[in-house]
Amino acid sequence: MKNALQSSHDALGKLIERFPAGNYIDATLGKGNDSFFILSHPAFSGKLFAFDIQVQALEIAQQKLKIFSSDSFQLFNNGHQHFDQVLSFSTLAKVHGAIFNLGYLPGASHQITTKASTTLKALNQIAQRLVSKGKIFIVVYSGHKEGAIEKEELIKQLTLWSQDQFTISILDFLNQRNHPPLLITIEKK
Length: 189
Known about the structure:
The protein has six helices and seven strands. It is of the alpha/beta class.
């Protein structure tokens, strides 16, 4: 059975095949692995916009992504909760897919982590521009204190989203040790 991250990439790959020239958001750039996955997908011909608050993350990701045309992506040293400010509606009216890989930057301070309040703000902003059949993938790491809070709050808030507009699912691993990540998928109807 595939884990949450592998499952998110499988589903993201299928989404890229559906919308090859689409606009994609990597809301938590980190070391650039999700961005690399998107940009290296054989069908991808769209545009990627990636966010991270840590300069260290942007530097690592820039090195990893330098093999791709700079016309195909933009990196922003900003929190994903500022999505609307960084990319105005007139600049980017439609989003076809987004991925969040929550938690902290591996190998960096565990004190700098995603928070439920900022993640929810970003999710709401991105969801407003999501096209029909567009998807948001959220890999949630709940094995640390802030991650457990974030998981609980995300599930609580996302259950309130309109089923007339979105379908939301969770892939969780119930009998595994050490709080493996789970995957939340949001699809716009």
